[in-house]
# Entry
Amino acid sequence: MAEFLQFLIAGVTVGAIYGLVALGFTIIYNASHAINFAQGEFVMIGGMATVFIMAAGLPLLLAVPLAIVIAAAVGIALYKFAVAPVRAGGVVTMIIVTVGASIFLRGLASVVWDRNYHYMAPFSGSEPIPIFGATITSQSLWVLGVTAAVALGLLIFYRYTRTGKAMLATAYNPDAAQLMGINVSTILMISFGLAAALGALGGILVTPISSTSFGVGVALGLKGFAAAIVGGLSNSFAALAGGLFVGIAEAMAAGYLSSAYKDAVAFVIILLVLFVRPQGLAGVRRAERV
Amino acid sequence: MTAPRRDNLPRSLGLVVLVVILAVLPLILPNRFYFDIAINIGLSAIVCVGLNLVMGFAGQISLGHAGFFGLGAYLSSTLTAHLEWPPVLALLAGLVVVGLLAFIFAWPILRLEGHYLAMATLGLGIIISIILNQEVELTGGPDGMPVPPMSVFGWVIEGETAWYWLVAAVLVVCTWLAFNMIESPVGRALRSLGSSPPAAAMSGINIARYKTFVFVVSALFASLAGSLFAHHAAFVTPVEADFFKSVEFVTIVVLGGLASIYGSIIGAAVLVALPQVLTVFHDYEHLIFGAILILTMVFMRKGIVPTLRARFAGKRG
# Structure
């Protein structure tokens, strides 16, 4: 039982990170009906930027917001210079551009920073806290606390701010939103910035747990995507729940089956969801698209 | 103005040009090193001609074709090395396995929007890559494994010249097959998809079936090229099934031109040769391939060959 609880804690912790990455997918999907294949690179940028800013002597408290701002700026630049010019080009064009951006950012990180693995000390001490025979690290508590705060913040943002409401309106019907005086292009830019910031936050939180390097983006991006499609791709809160689902499934598979294949779990989930229930476990079935 | 449009060069003429270039090339290539590059260009071109059917004609994108390439390579390697199967039989077994996998995989997913296939193939490629890295006893793990030489009914293919002719012949056959597919009812159905999927569906075209067919054919091309690659290199590592390798294939197709079969061959020539010529390339390969993908899409959406062809035709008025 203690063993099960331990796996559960590990799963919920990484699951919360996947949830943050998944939020980025849903935000961009809602605004543009496109999948951003560079989402994982924001996660990488968050972790790597924090590590290198701290190495330059800045404290964590300054490095974290700075890294998030850098990632958001990269997200906005990605939209402005790569996505916006090809927006009318269709699904394949969007995929090619964001895959290109993903590889480009990875290459840029390996040149600007380096190709090594980097660790970061936990935010507040590494003393494990006992809980019902299992233990939980303070970093796990940080991850869960921050993710909960983000969820609450997003709820307030969507419900009570003009920008948030404009984003929801754009998600429902971009043409109508445009007619109502919402600048859809600005909304898209904000979406890319916000998605990048949330991804970066996930990347920063996970670095003390599993380290970071220029190449971590692909796997984290895919796991975030798995979480997003479990949640149905368009619902932010279902995406967070999807993250927990993927994280727990992965931790259980690693604990009880084989740790060598734990990275395959998320992909098996992607395939199963696409085969059986493409609208997501929480999604509503829509008319079949051709 | 009444002159016939030039951009529909007769297919047979293009194929003749390809054969002539391939036949003359060995006279120009100075040494083994260049033969080796030409062979690798040919192998990438085989994969990308197939991938272009998916990307240029079926309007889908696969980010896992290196997985099929790697699977073909490793099935050939393990069956010939461990079970001492004849290479041709192992190659055929690779085709059967990869073809079935692609079919089972694509059938449900190709009924969904384009980005689902992209993500699913990306995931499939990574699973294949994980398996090749983990099953050390079978595959040698990350260190790779040696591969016995290729032989066709007892005749061993060795030396760069023999390999060159083999790969050139396979490339010509695959190109011919690709053109036949484009000209066939399948191809026409797919082109109608490009203009209006709902209209195509209304006319009774089973979209998912055609897309699946094209996807399976492209996976077979990749597996075939992978098997040949393994025997030619005499050594395989999981890098061949890597995500980045899949992106390389996509970049070749995009740069050469979506829906331009010859574009894919030229794209392969440029992008396979470039890293060999420019030694600085290696440190910046991610950066360069990423930039090529973005810049081509933003400034030259159609890719090299269709863009040049349009310019050429335009100059003549």
